[in-house]
Amino acid sequence: MTLARPVFFVSDGTGITAETLGNTLLTQFDGLEFDKTTLPFVNTAERAKNTVDYINFVGQQTGHRPLVFSTTVSDEVRTMLRQVDGLFMDLFDLFIHEMERELKLGSTHAQGRAHGVADRRRYDERIEAVHYAMEHDDGASTRDLTRADLILIAPSRCGKTPTSMYLALQHGLYSTNFPLTVDDLEQLRLPLALKGLEARCFGLTSDPERLAQVRSERRPGSRYASLEQCAYELRQAEQLYRRRGIPYVNSASMSIEEIATVVLQEKHLRKHGYPGA
What we know:
By secondary structure, the chain is an alpha/beta fold. It contains ten helices and eight strands. Strands 2-1-3-4 form a four-stranded parallel sheet, with helices on both faces. Strands 6-5-7-8 form a four-stranded parallel sheet, with helices on both faces. Strand 1 (5-11), helix 1 and strand 2 form a beta-alpha-beta unit. Bifunctional serine/threonine kinase and phosphorylase involved in the regulation of the phosphoenolpyruvate synthase (PEPS) by catalyzing its phosphorylation/dephosphorylation.
């Protein structure tokens, strides 16, 4: 059996940026298997040397040259990491020097700024937004709804909760969500708590087959999960959205990140506390 190609995401911080960069590039190569490992907080020469030794060991064991995606700001650490017996790609190597020349300003070489607490105010805003999203998840609370930047509405299991949480955590938006119940859908009405807040609403829909599959994981064999019921609820939801002039998107084949991006664009929402690249 052929072993998967080893891939390493190396960072002097959390590794989130290296993962995002590397995974984005890897999606362009079909038919290959990758064994991915994240190595965070490689922020000293000693740790860099140990990292190189480990990556080289894995490469020898698998018989494949590792791919190494790096986001390390220290020149000393990067110099050590370049000794790896594999393809080494560092975000700062590729861009920071060009930016310094263009901006006529030296970079700070400060570690951990992208996903650390470099800006306490913005960090606190994101955490407060998460608390708000959790309190108001699935219509659990109607307190202080006028504070909401966004209200997601949809039949059950169309992706409201994960999208709300993502918008809160990643973009600092006060996002809440409400389910459209069978009674709401039969009468083509919004939940009563949303009266006067229609302009803040955004709808989600799905494909009947996909929705039935997702619901069957929770309540197999139920009417709730039947294809007929799912198709009915989705038809009614879309009719409600059109009647009330509420923008909506079909989330069936979209990632949470893609749904969130569409919502931000359609509602012209500003990212309040976005943590950075």
